[in-house]
Design a protein that fits this description.
A hairpin with a 5-residue loop joins strand 1 and strand 2. By secondary structure, the chain is mainly alpha-helical.
Length: about 150
């Protein structure tokens, strides 16, 4: 299963913000530079994560973005479900009529079960699980070594 860049960037943003001291503000440029990704893409991600209640955006000269919840309250499976727009692993998930063997095919059910297992694993983790070594994470995010 491959997640979209949108979901990937959403998770990266949450990790970046989670690595900061509680309440510390960041900005899109800082995050984009840390991951070497587009500011425009991150602006869309920021807007959506704000609407979903994961981050807080503060406008103005001293504004920025930060987590709106504790990292332990941000479930990774939930974030993926809310940011991923398509869980159709195979074509028959979308249009069962496109395949002539859909009525008797067992693959569709296997892929559906695999998807549920994938999401169940993600449901076992919170953002906090990825922040065990915040000091080392900050070093990577604040240096040129952030992307290997």
């Amino acid at each position: 299963m491959k997640l979209t860049l949108y979901t990937d960037y959403s998770l990266r943003m949450l990790v970046f913000l989670g690595a900061k001291e509680e309440g510390e503000l960041s900005n899109i440029k800082e995050i984009a530079d840390a991951y070497n990704i587009s500011k425009n893409h991150l602006m869309k991600v920021t807007h959506e994560l704000g609407k979903l209640g994961y981050i807080e955006t503060i406008r103005g000269r001293n504004g920025g973005i930060r987590l709106a919840k504790k990292p332990s309250d941000i479930n990774i499976g939930e974030v993926v479900r809310k940011t991923e727009d398509d869980f159709h692993i195979v074509e028959c998930f979308v249009d069962p009529g496109r395949c002539s063997i859909t009525p008797i095919c067992g693959l569709r059910h296997v892929f559906a079960e695999a998807l549920q297992a994938f999401l169940a694993v993600l449901d076992r983790y919170t953002l906090n699980d990825f922040l065990a070594d915040k000091d080392m994470l900050r070093i990577f995010l604040e240096s040129d070594a952030s992307i290997m």
